[in-house]
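Handout, section B. The chain below has 1173 residues.
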Amino acid sequence: MWITPEEVLLANALWVSERANPFFILQRRKGHGKGGGITGLLVGTLDVVLDSSARVAPYRILHQTGDSQLFWSIACGSSRKEITEHWEWLETNLLQTLSIFDNDDDITTFVKGKIQGIIAEENKSRQAQEDEDCGKFREAELKMRKLFGMPEEEKLVNYYSCSYWKGRVPRQGWLYLSVNHLCFYSFLLGKEVTLVVQWTDVTQLDKNATLVFPESVRVSTRDTEHYFSMFLNINDTFKLMEQLANIAMRQLLDNEGFAADRMLPKPCKTLKNVSALKRDLDARAKNERYRALFRLTQDERLDGHTDCTLWTPFAKMHVVGQMFVSNNYICFASREEDLCQLIIPLREVSIVEKADSSSVLPSPLSISTKNKMTFLFANLKDRDFLVQRISDFLQRTPDRLCGLTGQSVSHSNTKGSPSTPTSLPPTPPVLGTGELPLVQHYSSSLPTAKQGLLSIYQKDQTEDLGPKATKEKMKEESWNIHFFEFGRGVCMYRTSKTRDLVLKGIPESLRGELWLLFSGAQNEMATHPSYYAELVEQAMGRCTLATEEIERDLHRSMPEHHAFQNEMGIAALRRVLTAYAYRNPGIGYCQAMNIVTSVLLLYCTEEEAFWLLVALCERMLPDYYNTRVVGALVDQGVFEELTRECLPLLYEHMQDLGVISTISLSWFLTLFLSVMPFDSAVLLVDCFFYEGIKVIFQVSLAVLHANMEQLLACTDEGEAMTILGRYLDNVVNKQTVSAPIPHLHALLTSGDEPPPEIDVFELIKTSYEKFGSLRADVIEQMRFKQRLKVIQCLEDTAKRSVVRAIMTESAFAIEELEELYVLFKAKHIMSCYWGASSTPAERHDPSLPYLEQYRIDSGQFGQLFSALSPWSCGMHTATLSARLFRLLDSNKDSLINFKEFVTEKMESVYSPLNTLLPLLSKKDAVVRLHVKIKDYKYYLRMWAKEKEPKKETIKDLPRMNQEQFIELCKTLYNMFSEDPLEQELYHAIATVASLLLRIGEVGKKFTNNGSKKPELQPLPAEDVPQQEKEDSSGEGGQSLVSKALAEAQLDNPTPPANVSDEEAKDDTSISSYSVVSAGSLQCEDIADDTVLIGCGVGGAIGGNDFRRGSAPDADWSISFEQVLASLLTEPALVNYFEKKHDIKSKMAACKAQRAVERQISSSSDHELAQLST
């Protein structure tokens, strides 16, 4: 490629000149290509270690004038062909022009200007993303694709110099991190190391330091471990690895491929060696931290942040921290944790103005809100730019809100990610549209639309002026004082005093309001007015799997509470759960959602409960309530790790009993609501909405610590469960003003002696004292490690489930089925990011059983067939693969799932002769094929499926016409090529073909005499005119085959005009090996380089008369039994097809190569050089 001219002082150092003229020199890197000796090895090693561009571009062109010692590099190339094209262009277009100049400086200026002009023209046609990437990075991406055979779709994110430990020996080289692969390449003194690992195969990612391995990164897969060290910045590399592995796990979990952010702003200047994808991932990581810190919605994008100070009127001081600005919010977080946090929605902002600077208050900025609050920021580095950005966002905010108010809710947001939809889903077609909701299911006049269920059912209760009520009044007064001092609503200052009030318990009258505030649900509800009402009307009345599960669980949701012992509470719960299941079908409904939602409805209106449920499922408890409760399993693993760190003695004992995994799932999924008295558990929910998941971990550890002595004395799991159950049953809230609610788990309590009561406030206080050092960022790091383990464990479980479900229907062994499933799924995943004929969503349906979820198209199937097939059919392999794919595709959707992939039709490739032959004939004859091998497994399968309709047998196969018979012969000829018994097999198939042709001719006589049965009619040829009847008194089948084979001696094999593209392709794919005449088959020997042709619609059958435009004989046909009987007369054919093939070796070879689809062999750079020349 042309490169920007650069000075070269030593032109011949490590380079060899191959061509030269007065103005240009073409050079090759020493050691590249053939030979090179020790010099080549040393140069190659230096190029790898120093990341020289010569590694990927071993050819270059220099410009030189006269006697000057200064050279200019103007072009480089990865192959001799590429650099030769550039050289010829220079000779054709510049040499004559340059000879006119008199001044050498003018020549150099002209050449440099010409090359820069060419580069500028090329850049215009490049994509925007490529324009953003610097030349050095594009060069590295080209190098990666060349070394590892990656396609254009595979994008490099970043690359690092490091050492890869192979045994105890480090190999210095380069680590390439792409979107889907981790690759390493090293070339030292002739020894090459190439490593490719798919991110979806990674089971563990650790950063550690040992005596053997200095500060290093360990990448673990199911089969092995890889160690990398000697990084310049190991933390940056490890964070990027974590991000890419997380993307891969999301792909396994939700089948979501990586999509680059098209809205990413361009950098002010080109960043050296930083790709657009790397900037994209860095921006995503910052956005995730920003959203998690302030509990913002998934579509919020951080625009920037800056250091500043905030004036806090309650403390009369300036607090140092950072200001964050995004498209809808201005946020502040103090440098000291819990000192002060602030969230200002732009929808609440009324005035933004710059105040006068002073030595005491430099660069101040004042922001006023609609509720008369004013916030003063100072020490802003670039205040003018910040004000401009805030003004830009404010100009968009009113228009957007007006649009939300006046337009349909379905247009409220279009940026939500698929996993967390924030807009109304499209309305699916419903039967009986005319009957759809004429009745309004939700209106603002409903009691539950105005207040929580607890308020409704406590109206009639007489006011109790006892000590508990007095305590509740004191709490309310404390909060009112806090609101007066720190503000009320979204713009409230959040400090350590706020947390202290939460830990003391939120008053029941304020619980719904503060839950909405602390969870961030209030922001979503404010920006999506009437969303819930419209969603309910769309969702109600539909019958889905989720609605059936919801109806089944409605009366199990807090049945002990009087609010859910009547239709009002049940109807409200039904509407909220159904609306959310319709909003997010990826989650739908999961058990435990009903318990949490019923508690939300006690303190909130329906709409508020809905948005709190959205915040829980999509932000605060990610992946908790999907079909496999992945999030809860991840946090279960985190809890086990925390127990090992904080309570090591108890951890060992509990692991032996297997208790931790049993208890933690119910604790986390319901936030203790199902295992603790309601009045106590709701206090934990208060803390959870303010602090997040860390509170649940703290309390869980405190519960184990409080029962440590008893648990250590346990001898079995049941005893430990009883101890913990009794303890939690007796965690009481002595300050509650609500009527006592009987707790279902109280049945565990022994009647002999009631256990002591535990004050829930003391439990919370203890959890903060003993385990309050837990940090949210540490928990997220632990979650990442556990997520890799959990998802890969679930994938292994799914694989075992698939094998168990299909093992009785398949002749493959269990180990073979497992390996086939791995290969099949790898093809599916690879098609998701390397392009395919259909989208990933069309290929993956999580509602189906595991063995039917993943599907591949004919292209991926062809690759698997070529790798696993026991025969090498040359160019005819694609044709045979296409026929088999059409056979396996039972529902004709152009995709096959794993169940279809391993049926007996696929097994026929490794099965005896009678199950295989129908695959080898023409495509239309095999679409209706269903073969059964009648052994004991057959009878077991028939017994299990006796209610299913009877499948077709061999006798139900249609008869084979002449065109299909020719296709069969062509396929067989290709299969026998390069076989050790090739000549014997050709002899046998020629004999069988002659016999079958005579049988077909004899059958014609019976057909012409009127004895043809209607059900035995052969399938008609596609778009072929009716052929004139052949004279049956001639040479018969013997002469037909003789003429067909003799036709193969034509010098210029050209298919006739009326032959289809596929048939013409098949014609050229016939084996080039000789065919030996045998028996009564009369034909001359065919030369070794002859290609058999003319077997299509207008092919050679029938001699010269047939070539003049006649069609296959429509009356000629044979049955499958006749083909099978004829083949069984030849021992060579019987032995060939009955020979058992070992699929394990094929799968092992395929597995070794499946990490990446290599386009060329890249085993060494020397081979690449030879290929390029």
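Note. The CA atoms of residues 600 and 882 lie 56 Å apart. Compare this with the example in section A.
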